[in-house]
Write a structure and sequence with these properties.
381 residues; alpha/beta; five-stranded mixed beta sheet; 20% strand; globular
Length: 381
């Protein structure tokens, strides 16, 4: 079965897409899979600006959310068709689309909202679309995240090494995999990933850059210990798992507040970016020390943060006993992992199998995830 997975994360910079072929083998819980294609498709500037407006309580009005839901559906459909053609396939050859959607608001343990109309995707592509994965886990008492823990445990549990699969998107989340024990996996959001770094880079460059490319600004700057200590006081960092977070806590208003605090202390812009980068690394490492049963022997980094060498150096320095590598080492492009995970989740849903990890999300029991929107291929699939 060929499945297309899509993910647009908290950073709201674009859509990650994958085309993957999955085949269930008799007697094996883990399907065989082959990644056929991966693409990173940026949002148009106007669409990104609208997303960033709609994820704020003060500007995300119901009329804008209503329109954005369909506009994003069209953007996802276009991205899906572009990816399918680039993979040398026709839409009729793809059985399912698994789309995470764009999170606009998340209330841990209560509710969540991801938009990007699946009806528009199914109508424009003709492909049966599975979406809204997080809601069922929350209905079962969970946080609805991290959803990638199922994929991580299924494909990356090692017989001898304890691993941490560290995704660094807008938010940082970790899946802890004890050696040879996938059912003992833990996962949670540790705090900000790229969000505050991106916010600071944009302010430091007066809008010329939307992120710190290759960690160059942070590399020029010096970490300010006073600012770092202030950042590390955030109460979310001390909250015990299961826990999730997002722009509601670490978005632009918090970034503006901390930038104002730092400039009042006469901290240079490059130093603020360096300190925000160290904050991500340190908050990840402190979460390992506080909440994991043991420190991992190997840390596998994915997401946009895997492309920031300054951040990776800081993270490696925080946990020198672990081998740090990126998902690319496993022939999976670092930025594709979450899209790949949602392709697998869609595959599991189609086969009627539960794919949340209650130990990670806090749900009362395993549940089948997502809503199914039939496409033209509904009967054939």
């Amino acid at each position: 079965m060929i499945v297309l997975g899509m993910m647009s994360g908290t950073s709201a910079d674009g859509i990650e897409t994958v085309v993957v072929e999955l085949e269930q083998m008799a007697g094996r819980a883990m399907p065989q899979w082959q990644l056929l294609y991966h693409a990173s498709i940026p949002f148009a500037d106007a669409l990104r600006e609208e997303i960033l407006a709609c994820v704020r309580a003060d500007t995300g009005t119901v009329d804008r959310l209503c329109a954005l839901n369909f506009d994003l559906g069209a953007a996802y459909a276009d991205a899906a068709l572009q990816t399918i053609r680039a993979a040398g396939l026709e839409p009729s050859q793809v059985a399912l689309v698994g789309n995470h959607g764009q999170t606009v608001w998340h209330i841990p343990g209560h509710s969540t909202l991801q938009i990007g109309s699946p009806a528009v995707i199914a109508e424009r592509t003709g492909i049966t679309t599975i979406s809204n994965f997080r809601a069922r886990d929350i209905a079962a008492g969970g946080h609805g995240a991290p959803m990638v823990a199922f994929f991580d445990a299924l494909f990356f549990t090692d017989a001898t090494k304890t691993r941490a699969l560290q995704n660094i998107g807008g938010i940082a989340n970790v899946t802890y995999l004890p050696a040879h024990a996938p059912h003992n996996a833990l996962a949670f959001d540790s705090g900000p990933g790229n969000l505050l770094m991106d916010d600071a880079a944009q302010r430091a460059t007066r809008g010329a850059q939307t992120y710190d490319q290759d960690g160059a600004i942070a590399a020029r700057g010096r970490v300010n210990e006073n600012l770092l200590a202030e950042l590390m006081q955030h109460p979310f960092l001390r909250q015990r798992p299961p826990k999730t977070t997002g722009r509601e806590i670490f978005g632009a208003p918090y970034g503006a507040q901390m930038w104002q605090w730092a400039t009042a202390q006469q901290i240079a812009p490059d130093d603020i970016v360096a300190t925000m980068t160290r904050f991500t690394a340190k908050s990840i490492a402190d979460a390992y020390r506080a909440f994991l049963p043991t420190l991992p022997q190997e840390i596998i980094v994915s997401g946009g943060g895997a492309k920031n060498p300054t951040l990776l150096q800081m993270l490696a320095a925080e946990i020198p006993t672990a081998r740090l590598c990126t998902m690319d080492e496993f022939n999976i492009p670092a930025q594709s992992k979450e899209a790949l995970a949602f392709a697998v989740l869609a595959y599991e849903t189609w086969h009627g199998r539960a794919a949340n990890v209650p130990a990670a999300t806090g749900a009362r029991h395993p549940v089948v995830l997502g809503d199914i929107t039939p496409g033209k291929n509904w009967r054939a699939a």
